Amino acid sequence: MPGTSRPSLLARIDFGRNETLLVLVILAFSAVTALVAPSFLSLPTLFDLLRNSIVMGIFAIGVLLVLISGGIDVSFTGIAVFSLYTTTLILTRLGVPVPWWAAFLLSIAIGTALGLVNALFIAGFGLPTLIVTLGTLSVIRGVLLTFVGSTLISNLPVGLKEFARLVMIRGTTAEGYFFSLPWAFAALVGVVAVTWVLLQYTTLGRSIFAIGGSPESARRIGIPVRAVQTFVYAYVGALAGLAGIIHASLARVANPFDLVGLEMSVIAAVVLGGARLAGGYGTITGTLLGVVLIVLVNTSLILLGIPSTWQMVVIGALILVGTGVPAWQARRTALRAG
Amino acid sequence: MNEPLDGAGPTPDATLRRTASPTFRLLASPIGRLAVITVLIFVALALLAPSRFVSVGNLTSMAFQFPEFALLSLAMMLAMLTGGIDLSVVGIANLSAILAGLALHAAGPEASAGTATLAIGAAIVVSLAVGAVCGVINGLTIGRFALPPILATLGSGLIYTGLGVAITGGSAVLGFPAAFAIIGNGSLGIVPVPLILFAVAAVGVAFLLGRTAYGIRIELLGTNPLASRFAGIDDFMVTVKTYVLSGMLAALAGLVVMSRANSAKADYGSSYMLLSILICVLGGINPNGGFGKVSGLVLAVLSLQFLSSGLNMLQVSNFAREFIWGGLLLIVMVVNTFELVRHRR
């Protein structure tokens, strides 16, 4: 607004933005939970929230990229559990102590390779993304449980044990409650920073938006659509490998039955964050807020006295309402316009 | 089904069929090829294990096994024909079965013949009504609120499954009148009741798709939504009707599963979602909408049931089965793309 006096704070908030709505919902949810259970407003809760957001946040950033590119991926949890379990198994069999970052690199490499398998079917053969990733999810999990292993590994390699002990922030509240934040949180921060730069400032990042908006137009202005798609699925695979190994390290166990089933919650978080399934639109801020909302719902339902059996219903309803309202508004605007 | 409804008019297929030899013509049509594959799988298994595979016991047990996922595949097929997908079919099947199961549970296993008949009737009505309501919700979110079908049915599927978990607390609903077993385990003569249910549903859907205006509307909507709207088709009504039908078929599948298992639970048949998509893709139903025939679906169901029985005989684990179904889905889709490429030339 040039030339006018500075508008009030309230007037400057854009209520049409998805992020604004999300912040309001998160605040409202926190307020209600705090009223019912005053213990909610404490540093330990905040740090629990941050710690629980690490793995889901990394997954969500990957899913965001896929949605922006106009696809969907449901196989990333399978990739994560395959990477974490195979990495742990290889390092245990090797018997040589390796530093944590070597384990991370191995897991990321396995994840990237599996992501390239998705890319082969999606970018190579041009198959529908949902059905391909449903297929690869069951293939990856089937191979893991049939040929790699189906037993827990509770004695993790030394490097991963050490990583779990690396704590960034720790402290005790006045009431004597202990809280801490592992260094793994830095991985989420790093992933967010790298992906933000990628999406905002690189040709590759802008190409991802372009192919999601309209693959045909993107092809005609000279964007190598298949190469960009290949990158997207490889990147998601790499992030899944990273999230998987962090999950195993923090959980202090490699469980081959873990993580699969979480994919719907992650997709819900990203979609609530405003990313469009049709492609071409999505923000990192929105995605992170979506993750916070889903993690918040999961943890505070119990504090609110709602049985955890209702969790699935709440997440499903959030998906329908959170995406239905904007879709309906867009449709009404479109109808009015023309 | 008659020729004019067969896909999008004169395809290279049609020209081939007019000129080539009968064998070649059979192999050139997707349905013919699938029929040959189905027969080959059957013959291969019959040769590998003649006494076990071609026994009356095995054939009847197969006829009892496949109707439940065949019904779910019919439900999935309808959604796919409109260009959508229904990820909530298993959720609908379980939720409707749980609610119907509560009615049966109220009658209890020692109910008198009269009470049992009443309870079973009530259960069937409840189940189909729940399936229809779930379908209306799916149709409304997709048709009116313009949600992409993937998201709408993903969200509603979570709600249906979640309601099932919340109502039962995650445990199974048990204690049905003994007579209820007829739906899943009974036979009329030598024909299993679930097979009859599936046959009736399949013929009904084939009739709707091939012989009614509604069938043509689905095909047009799935082929080109914009063009179908300009052709004056009420896409909202077609969408709602399709998802209601899909929901009721899923509910019927839920009844069969419940009767066979003699219980209802929120996580039954969780592997059926992938299986029903696999069957549709294998049966030549185009996931992008528009094309697909019930005959293709039936052949796909049969060939997968034969394979599944074969895997049972080899004592293949459930995990390996997951791997095989997923791999098969990917391979079939890749083969289908080569098919399309060849046709375009």
TrEMBL record, chain A:
PANTHER family: ABC TRANSPORTER PERMEASE PROTEIN YPHD-RELATED, ABC TRANSPORTER PERMEASE PROTEIN YPHD-RELATED-RELATED. Coiled coil: none annotated. The keyword Transmembrane helix applies. One of its GO terms (molecular function) is transmembrane transporter activity. This is ABC transporter permease. It is found in: Cell membrane. The chain crosses the membrane at residues 21-43, 49-67, 74-94, 100-123, 130-156, 176-199, 230-250, 256-275, 287-306, 312-330. It holds the Pfam family BPD_transp_2. One of its GO terms (cellular component) is plasma membrane. The lineage of its organism: Bacteria, Pseudomonadati, Pseudomonadota, Alphaproteobacteria, Hyphomicrobiales. Keywords: Cell inner membrane, Cell membrane, Membrane, Transmembrane, Transmembrane helix, Transport. It is a multi-pass membrane protein. Signal peptide: none annotated.
UniProtKB/TrEMBL annotation, chain B:
It is found in: Cell membrane. Keywords: Cell inner membrane, Cell membrane, Membrane, Transmembrane, Transmembrane helix, Transport. The keyword Cell membrane applies. One of its GO terms (molecular function) is transmembrane transporter activity. One of its GO terms (cellular component) is plasma membrane. It comes from the Bacteria. This is ABC transporter permease.
